[in-house]
Every structure is written in structure tokens, then in C-alpha cells.
Amino acid sequence: MEFAFPEYNLRLMAPEIFLFLWALLIIAYDVLTKRKSETTAGYLALAGLMITGLILGFTGTGHGFGNMFVSDTAAKFFKIIFLGSAFMAIGSSFGIMREKIVNHRGEFYGLILFSTVGMMFLSSSNELLSLYIGLELTTIPLFVLAAFFKDDKLSVEAGIKYFIVGAFSSALLLYGISFLYGLSGTTDLVQMKINIAITHLTFQNIGVILILAIVLVVAGIGFKLSLPPFHQWVPDVYQGSPTPVAAFLSVGSKAAGLIAFAKIFVNGLFAFHHPDMAPNDWGRLVALLAVAAMILGNTVAIRQTNIKRMLGYSSIAQVGYIMIGIVAMNALGMAAMGFYIFAYMFANMGAFAAVAIVEDKTGSCEISTYSGLARTSPLLSATFAVFLLSLAGIPPLAGFMAKFYIFAAGIQAAQHDPGLYWMYWLVGIALLTTVFAIYYYANIIKQMYFAKEPSPHKVTYNFPALTVLLIGLAGLFVFGIYPEPVLHFASGIASSFGIIP
Amino acid sequence: MTDGSQVGVIFWFLSFVILISGFMVVSLKNIFYCALFLVLCLFSVAGIFILLEAEFLAAAQVLIYVGAVAILMIFAIMLTTDMASKEITQTNENVTVGVFVSVIFAISTILLIDKTSVWRYQDHDFSEGVTVTLGKLLMTKFMLPFELVSVLLLAAMIGAIVLARKERS
Questions:
Q1: What does pTM read for this prediction?
Q2: Which of A493, B59, B82, B167 could link A334 by a cystine bridge, Cβ 3.0 to 4.6 Å?
Q3: Which residues on adjacent β-strands are paired with residue A64?
Q4: Measured between CB atoms, does B164 come within 8 Å of chain A?
């Protein structure tokens, strides 16, 4: 058996390598200055993310480490989302850093950057082994970050819950991956696609064993994506963990789960997305989970009194919408999925930044705290209202365009293929649940603007948090009115997954 | 390879030990005994690996799971006050649902694997021996995940230090 050293193409990996070294630098800096720096570690982290973004802009496309590492449009698009959500999470963390994270500032930012590096490797992985390790590198720092307030019971509870659920879901995913490997004899996703198809044709039918692999992988990644019935950890973990970490969990970690899901299913199990392939048809299974996510997330969110729990349930519902793009499996669906997570990043990171600003002032995340806030803190209330309206999908914000493209992709899939007629139902349910969503998002806006008494609190802004608010606001308006450039970029995701428009 | 019937006897014996000790791990009330049964369970899994001619996996299983993980657990139990002698119930109100789901999952998995004949594991060439082939693959084809694991371990180590360290006031 001959072994050839693969061509490394390390320059494709420049952003990841830089960010990894930068994370080490931040930790070392914080320790060497005897943890006296108040905000320097945070600013260093922000600068590192910006430089990484610049390097990413100059990185070409191609393959490295044989076929292990791929730099294509899908990878680059998602890397921008990971860097953006890490940037906005760190930007909204300056308030808690002054008071609560006194002894471990360097580690806090270092671990966020480590997690981002994991996400970036995950989005560039072209085979199951490095995909799995990328996913682990994403989640293991997040376990620690969720439990970062060690003397806060809720935070420790969040950390332990997330750890147990995360470890369990990794085991399920790994078990599913082992079946995929057993059926295809390879971990390379493209080779797997070919091998499984050949097996399927040679034996007439691959048999029901594939459904076991599909269920296990859906469950494993479903935990990360918080698709029902794997969503129970979400509200508790979001409520307990530090607000910037919850924000990062809700966007960065979800985008990572999404790209992992798309890589395995859209790319690797391309052929098994159709009712003709029953029972190995993963399309209807995922559609069912998406329906559950939209209904459950949007209805349970109405009853919440804690804003972080409410945003947690809202994020469950949002994943349901995104899954429509994946189930549609056409070029528009892939582009819509990319655009949706892009718009969702601005809205959700912005909303969590607003929550963090209020929490820094009042120490509370109850929705009642927001009562009458518009009269004392007009800027915060106005931006928060915009973020919530975008999450609800009100024009002219980016969230509306995102929902529009997703629904259009679903309808296009249904029209194109009579076997996918149930996509009409999926889009119909999605439209219906959007109405529920407007109700609970508007409820907070009502609290802020139409309360009888003005709020006793007046929030104060620190510069990075204010920047995050303004970035979110600008992103939602600019890409809501002029979505073409992002959509054009996102349409490259489809060809990365081998879908011809 | 010895003849088939002997291998069968050893396999059934090891499986029996794995099942019994695994059940003990999740049902005994004393956590120290649970840890000891976990060691037995992991040792028997290493035996199964040897039966499958995967010597490297067997050695790794013993070194990592028995030598490091389980022993570390026993140390943690012994260093925690009162832990070794405490009686703890391992079940809560969800035990019925949990057992039901696990049994259904186990039965359906066994049935599905039993009915499948399309595995492609035999495509690989192990003429140089498993360990040599594995080492070469890790250093060539699978170098990226192999190197990534070190980043993962570093992140886990930093995280563990952050969580375990006593805070200065």
C-alpha cells in the first residue's frame, strides 16, 4: 500500500491558522499583563476577527491536504457568518467583562476564538472525520463559556446541561457517521455520494439500514440545531449562560450545525432526497422536524416571561424556516438558506446585544424590565424594535427578504417535482406560524412603547456594544432594501454542494 | 486465527460480561462500584477488538479508557468527600420512558444490522498490519484531523483550567 503525502496548500488555511495563533496571543497577553488590562483583551479579539476577515477576503478557492480541506463559496460564506457573529458577540460582552469576568478575560475571548476556528474548519471540511472534529472544536469551548459565571447557579446549570446534551448528541452523530462509513467504505463526502449510489444500484436497494444512519445523524446535528424533539436544552442554556455566549450559541453554533447538516445531507446523501427513495427519504423526515420547530418554537415563545428564553424559542422557530431551504434542495433553496442565516445574524446578534445592554444596567432579563423603556432610552428601544421586527419578517428589513426567498424556494421545489407536493403544506404552515411570531415579538415592542409608566432605568452604552447595535441596524436596512449582492454570493453555495441551477 | 467455535465462545462470553457490567454501571447505588464495573466493561470491549483483529484499537481502549478515563473517575470519587460510601439512586421519574426508548432503539438497530449485507469495510488493504497502516494514514491522508485534535485538546485543557481554578477575590 503506497502512501503519498498530500499537497498541503496551507495558504488556503491562512485565516484559520491566523485566528488560532491570535487566540493564543490574547490568552498569553492577559496572563503576562497580570490580568490588569480592562478592555484591551476584548479589543484585541475584535481586531483579530477583523484581520481574519481581511485574510479571508484574499484567500483563493481550492483544495488542501489532499481532499480534506476545501475552500469554496459555501465555506467562505459561512466563515463570514462565523466571524461576524463572533465579532458581535464579543462586542456586546464589554459590560459583563468589567464586573463579572475579572480573572479570566483572556480565556473568555480565547475560547470564543477557538470555537470560531472550529466552525471555520468545519465549514471547510470535505469529509466526515474532520467535520466531526471541527464540530467538537466548536462545542467544547462553548460548554466552558456557558458555565463561565462560576458563582451563578443558573450559569453552572447551563454549562452542565449543555455539556451533557452536547456529549450525548456527539455520540449519536458519531454512531450515525460510523454507519455511513460502513455503507460507503469512505469518509470523503463526494466519494461517499458515489459509493452509496453504486451500492444502491448493485443491490437494487440499499435496504433500510440507511434510515438508521440518517436518523442518528439528524438527531446528532438536530441537538446542535435545536430541532424538536432535540430542543429541550435551549431555553435553560440560553437563560443561564452569559448573554454574549447565548447570542453566539444562537447564531454561530447554529450556522455551524447548519453547514454540517448541509454537507452530510445535501452533498453526501444527495440521491436520497425524494419520496421514491422511501424509506431512506430524509427530505420528509427533516420537513416534519421543521414543522415541529416552527409550531413549537412560535407557540411556546408567547408564554415566556424571560427575554432570553423567548429568544431561545424564537431561534428554534427560525431554524424551522431555514430547514425549508435545505428540504427544497434547489439552487434557490441553498441561496435562501445562506441569505436567511445572514439576515438572522444581524437581527439576532443585535437583539442579544440590546438584551446585554439592558442587563448590564438592570441586572435582569425579565420582559417586564422593558416596560416603558422607550421614554428613557429611545435609541435602544428603537434598534431593539427593528431587530424584533426583522426576526418577525416585516418589510423592508432583511428578515422579510429572507423569509420571502425561503418560501419561494419551497414553492419552486413543489412546482418542479410532483413528488414534492407536500412542500406546499410546509410553506403554508410556515406562513401561518409567522403570524404567531409577530404576536410575541410585537408584545415586547408594546411593552417598550405603550406602557403607562416610564421605565426607572436609563441604559448607558459602551462603545463596542453601540457599534454592534448600529452594525445590526445598518445590515438589516441595507440588505433588506438591496439584497442582490449577498444573494448573488449565496447562490454560489448551491454549486459548492453540486446542485446545478 | 483460531477455529470458529472457540472464537464464538469467547465472543459470547465477552458480550455477556459487557452487558452485565454495563447494566451494573447504570444500576448500582454505590458510585465507586459503578466505576469499577465500568473498568471491567471497557476491558471486555478491548477483548472484542482483539477478536476483530484490531490490536491497535484494543491497546488504545485499554490505555485511554481504562488507564486514563476510568482511573481518573475513581480518583475523582476518592478525592470527593463522602462520595465513595454514599448511596445514590440512579433513576428518576423518566426511567420508564428511558428504558422503553433504549430497548426499542436497541432491538431495531440489531434487526437492521442483521438484515444488511451491503457493508463495504472489506475494501481496505491491511497487509502491513493494522497499526502500521493506521499510523501511515494518520500522517498522510488524515493529517488534518489528526492535527486538529491537538487544537481541540488545547481548547479543552484551557477550559478545564478556567472551570476548576479557585477564584481570587
A1: 0.93
A2: A493
A3: A69
A4: no
